[in-house]
Model the fold of this input.
Amino acid sequence: MTIIVAKTLLFRLINELDRSKKSAILLTFDLFLIPIALYGAFALQYATLVPPVELLAATPIYLLVIGAAGLFASALGISRVKLKAYENRAIASTGLLAILIAVFAALLDKVAAIPVLEMTHSATYFVFGVNFFLLSVL
Done:
């Protein structure tokens, strides 16, 4: 199968989905970007591609961040934005979502009693927010 045929089939499949399924797919993609953005932030903080294994102890916190991001994104209506119409308002909403989840993650970090997170600098969560925003918009 050639690339053109595959793109045509994918385009037809996407066009046949109803709006709620498209919104669910977009929300799922946004939520999958959170661990990638967090990984990037921790990789920068620890200056290595393999952050400390001790960070696995903070997995419940990161799952809470993903859940909260889903709620924030739904409240902001980000998953209902038409891809053709991804204009300034939608980009601003994505920026607000990035700020909300970065602040939420930083607050959870400070509240949690997980020793490895005590070494996490607050700038790491700023980088996390920027990573998430860039991954979402691009």
Remarks:
- The longest helix spans residues 19-46.
- The chain has a mean pLDDT of 83.
- The CA atoms of residues 106 and 122 lie 7 Å apart.
- The radius of gyration is 17 Å.
